[in-house]
Design brief:
The structure holds two protein chains of two kinds.
Chain A lengths: L18 H16 L5 E2 L13 H10 L5 E6 L6 H13 L4 E2 L8 E5 L12 E5 L13 H9 L4 H14 L10 E3 L4 E2 L18 E6 L4 E5 L5 E3 L32 E5 L5 E5 L2 H20 L1
Parallel strand pairs in A: 2-3, 2-4, 4-5, 5-8
Antiparallel strand pairs in A: 1-9, 6-7, 6-10, 8-9, 11-12
Helix pairs in contact in A: 1-2
Chain B lengths: L8 H18 L8 H7 L1 H11 L4 H10 L4 H12 L17 E6 L32 H13 L13 H7 L27 H9 L3 H13 L7 E15 L6 E16 L13 E8 L3 H20 L8 H5 L4 H10 L5 H20 L11
The chains are: A alpha/beta, B alpha+beta.
Chain lengths: ~300, ~375
């Protein structure tokens, strides 16, 4: 994240945003790290991609990148998803010198929409989330002013009530993604629309998680080695997505055979269903390891 | 296998972008539309983009319309994104709109006003009938339009300033004195809206708000979800001289002029505090370009939000948070279009919840499913 060395002549400057804007965003990030889970308001800039397409994450990433960084962009776990491809194209245009990678292990900054990579990230890595709704209380309170007061008092009673009412009505907590998660024992965050599968990865991680909501103009963070607890009752444990089939077997990835990853359900033209890893880099890794394993065996 | 469905994104979007660009030329063998033509012949559309883009750059606004195939939301968005790359250089002094070089000025409150009513160019009294001959307009006839107008213009010395109608009301004590002016106006491009926000933040947000969004909320008030009952005290359209502090001396210098529309609405009086006489109340609207609907709608919403602030909001149009967070076209359009992006993961989670819930409700009563805690 060292400052750039040379500026490529272009009609837009390095990192697109003007330097003051980047400085302001980094300040908001520092404040967010200092108060884990607190939503820091900031003057979100309009970006050349639409609001809702990751402008919050994009502003954080642009304000962090220097030309010694390697950036990876995923959407739905995939580097090839249209939005990820589009953002990567934008980074290539406005951040000359920054290395682009699809390999999770090689990236210093990863911008993501809807997933956390399957393999745990290291202390020298930052994961930047694109956030549509920064406030978990929007489920139960539309007025932003009232929500601020509720956060200040750590008053999450109405969220708990919502969970309880779910149990009464459906015998299940119906929150599928964006699962409310309590950070460092105080603020409850909306961890962005990641599946419940990814929520446990927020807890006591080595890496820094940064969340940027561009349209709603908020930045928040889960710093390394911080507790992150999904809201749950002592007799109703938090549960992640269930990938067992009707026979009680864990489904496997049709491509790499993994049985420990979040799976995409794919509908075939004949109505058949297959399942495959959503994290494409993880899937490739497993395939590659299997190939190496085979070739070393055949060599021996 | 179907896995490839999410591969090839980069190539697909590159081709999609190419096709969108080619669409400009695929329609026929017309010559490309010039940015200057958009600016001069579609000035109302062009002005709307300037206003909603929040950056007075006529050339780029025209280019934005050309690039966006005439979509005003997309065009304003392009201008707004460009604005993010520009630093803030200075804060201007307050601009005196009585110094505007007017092209139009009306009051619905008085038959005659100091300086006179000046209808100027307006569609209000057009009969919305087609002029089919314009389908095949030739160059000489088109050129003659401007020439005939200019040749037959009466020589008339116009005053350089026109007094404001609302000042006459103030002088009579019928309208409250203007609020004291904040030292530093709230800059919505440098600070987020955290409610409650000062009036300057509300005005700035609406000034670059989306015309249709402002109109819908103002119309709700006009129809009965609110009670502003406005009278247009004055509506003026013209060129406002822009003064900037000199970069070296700091002295104010005139740097150019911008076309704006300004509207002041007068609303019914309210009970005054502490035994003072009741007075009419004021709503203010102003925006870049010639856009009267936007200026009037904004003035009504300014008034309704002030009422909401004093008495507590009783209707959506009186609730500053509701109005200001929903009138920005760049934000609302962006979020609306984002639903087209892949949502495979969240939908997979939704499926998981629904299947589990269905299984449980069928299995009821008593049967517990296996937990999969992690």
């Amino acid at each position: 994240m060292r400052a750039r060395k040379k500026r490529k002549p272009a009609s837009y400057g390095f990192g697109f945003l003007d330097e003051n804007a980047k400085k302001e965003i980094r300040r908001a990030v520092l404040k967010a790290v200092a108060i884990p889970g607190y939503q820091v308001p900031y003057a979100s800039r309009e970006m050349p991609i639409a609001r809702g397409f990751g402008t919050g994450g994009l502003q954080i990433t642009l304000s962090l990148l220097g030309d010694d960084d390697a950036v990876k962009v995923i959407d739905q776990g995939s580097d090839e998803s249209v939005n990820a491809a589009n953002l990567r194209k934008f980074f290539a245009l406005v951040c000359p010198g920054v290395t682009e990678t699809t390999r999770t292990a090689d990236a210093s900054v990863i911008q993501t929409r809807h997933r956390i990579p399957e393999r745990a990230l290291r202390a020298d890595q930052i994961l930047v989330f694109q956030v549509p709704y920064p406030d978990p209380l929007v489920l139960v309170e539309a007025n932003a002013g009232k929500r601020r007061e509720m956060h200040g008092a750590a008053n999450y009673a109405r969220l708990w009530t919502k969970l309880y009412e779910d149990m009464v009505t459906f015998d299940e907590i119906t929150i599928s993604h964006r699962y409310p998660t309590r950070i460092a024992g105080h603020y409850v965050i909306d961890p962005s629309p990641i599946p419940r599968w990814d929520v446990p990865k927020l807890d006591q991680a080595d890496c820094l998680y940064l969340f940027g909501a561009g349209r709603e103009k908020r930045i928040y963070a889960v710093p390394p080695h911080t507790t992150a607890e999904p809201l749950s009752f002592s007799d109703v444990p938090f549960r992640v997505e269930d990938f067992t089939d009707a026979k009680g077997q864990r489904r496997t990835c049709a491509r790499c055979g993994a049985t420990d990853s979040f799976l995409d359900e794919l509908l075939g033209a004949d109505g058949s269903r297959t399942w495959a890893c959503s994290d494409t880099d993880y899937c490739n890794d497993i395939l590659e390891a299997a190939r190496c394993d085979r070739s070393s065996k055949s060599a021996a | 296998m179907s896995y490839v469905a999410i591969k090839g994104g980069a190539h697909a979007i590159a081709q999609s972008n190419r096709l969108l660009d080619a669409l400009r030329a695929l329609g026929g063998d017309n010559s490309p539309i010039e940015a200057a033509t958009i600016e001069t012949q579609l000035p109302l559309l062009h002005g709307r983009v300037l206003s909603e883009g929040g950056l007075y750059h006529p050339t780029l606004a025209a280019l934005a319309l050309k690039q966006s195939l005439g979509d005003p939301l997309e065009a304003a968005f392009m201008l707004r994104a460009y604005r993010s790359t520009q630093p803030r250089l200075a804060t201007t002094p307050i601009h005196d709109t009585s110094r505007m070089r007017l092209i139009r000025r009306i009051s619905a409150a008085f038959k005659d006003i100091p300086g006179g009513q000046m209808l100027g160019p307006a569609p209000d009294y057009l009969q919305r009938l087609f002029r089919f001959d314009l389908l095949d307009e030739d160059q000489p006839t088109f050129k003659a339009l401007a020439r005939d107008w200019l040749d037959n213009l009466a020589e008339e010395e116009l005053p350089s300033t026109f007094p404001k109608v609302v000042e006459a009301l103030r002088a009579e004590g019928l309208l409250a004195e203007a609020d004291p002016i904040d030292d530093e106006p709230f800059d919505i491009t440098r600070a987020p809206l955290v409610f409650p926000v000062p009036r300057s933040a509300a005005l700035a947000t609406m000034a670059r708000g989306e015309t249709g969004g402002l109109l819908a909320l103002a119309y709700s008030n006009m129809r009965g979800y609110g009670d502003v009952h406005p009278t247009v005290g004055e509506l003026r359209v013209g060129y406002l001289p822009i003064t900037l502090p000199h970069p070296v001396t700091g002295e104010p210098i005139e740097a150019g002029e911008v076309l704006i529309t300004e509207c002041e609405i007068v609303a019914m009086y309210e009970e005054a505090d502490g035994g003072a006489k009741p007075t009419f109340t004021l709503g203010y609207g102003a925006c870049f370009g010639h856009n009267e609907v936007k200026a009037i709608a904004m003035a009504i919403l300014d008034r309704s939000m002030q009422a909401g602030r004093t008495h507590g909001p009783k209707n959506p149009s009186e609730d500053a948070e509701f109005v200001l967070l929903h009138v920005d076209g760049i934000e609302s359009m962006g979020f609306c279009t984002h639903y087209k992006m892949p949502h495979y993961i969240t939908f997979q989670s939704d499926l998981d919840r629904l299947r589990t819930t269905q299984a449980k409700q069928v299995a009821r009563p008593g049967k517990k499913d296996q937990t999969n805690a992690r």
